[in-house]
Amino acid sequence: MRRAGDMLPIGKIAARTGLAVSALRFYEAEGLIHPIRTAAGQRQFRRSDIRRISFIKIAQELGMSLTDIRQEIAKLPDGRTPTKADWAKISRKLQAMLDDRIHQLQRTRDVLDGCIGCGCLSLKSCKLYNPDDQMRQTGTGPRIILNSPGDA
Questions:
Q1: Taking a C-beta distance cutoff of 8 angstroms, is the pair 142, 118 a contact?
Q2: By CB neighbour count within 10 A (0-12 exposed, 13-18 middle, 19+ buried), where does 130 fall?
Q3: Burial of 116 (0-12, 13-18, 19+ CB in 10 A)
Q4: Helices 21-29 and 49-61: crossing angle, nearest 10°?
Q5: Tell me, what's the pLDDT at 16?
Q6: Spatial separation of the C-alpha atoms in residues 116 and 113, rounded to whole Å
Q7: Alpha-carbon distance 10 to 57, whole Å?
Q8: Which of 48, 67, 81, 116 has the fewest C-beta atoms lying within 10 Å of its C-beta?
Q9: How many CA atoms lie within 13 A of 6 on its CB side?
Q10: Exposed/middle/buried for 68, CB within 10 Å: 0-12, 13-18, 19+?
Q11: Spatial contact of 27 and 13, defined as CB atoms under 8 Å apart
């Protein structure tokens, strides 16, 4: 049974999460959040939606797609505040994603000043990194930076 204090109107959720009301409506349209409608059609949110919305905001900042965020949010229980164990399941995926991103950023930092890995052959070091433009066989763009050495 829901108590009146457990439900918050969209304006209060917006103020609490630091998001615009329009952003919350967008999240709803994208199927990321599911407010309850009153008889008058007003959106009401559970207090537990604050955590879900915060997760969405953080995940977007980390570069997750809305599709990936939707898949992760779907793993959370509906109608109750997620537990620490519920969030731990999701955080494992985020940790792996962050580890990959950190690795890519470090790799970029380490080679950026010597070669951007574009295959242009205009730098002397390209003869070392990309002799005879062999990287063109793996695709376009900065292959050395985008791919780990074992990926090419």
A1: yes
A2: buried
A3: middle
A4: 90
A5: 94
A6: 7
A7: 16
A8: 67
A9: 10
A10: middle
A11: no
- Going across the sheet that includes 36-37, the strands are 7-9, 43-46, 36-37
Out of 25-34, 78-87, 100-109, least confident range: 78-87
Length of the chain: 152
Q: Over 50: is that where the pLDDT of 1 sits? A: no
Supply 145's token pair. 């930076």
Extract the tokens encoding 7. 């439900």
The angle formed by the CA atoms of residues 78, 3 and 25, to the nearest 5 degrees, is: 50
- Is the predicted pLDDT of residue 100 greater than 50, yes or no? yes
Given the structure tokens 């615009």, which residue do they identify? 20
- The residue written with tokens 């050495």 in the block is 149
Structure tokens at 102: 């950190």
For the question of whether the overall pTM of this predicted structure is more than 0.85, the answer is no
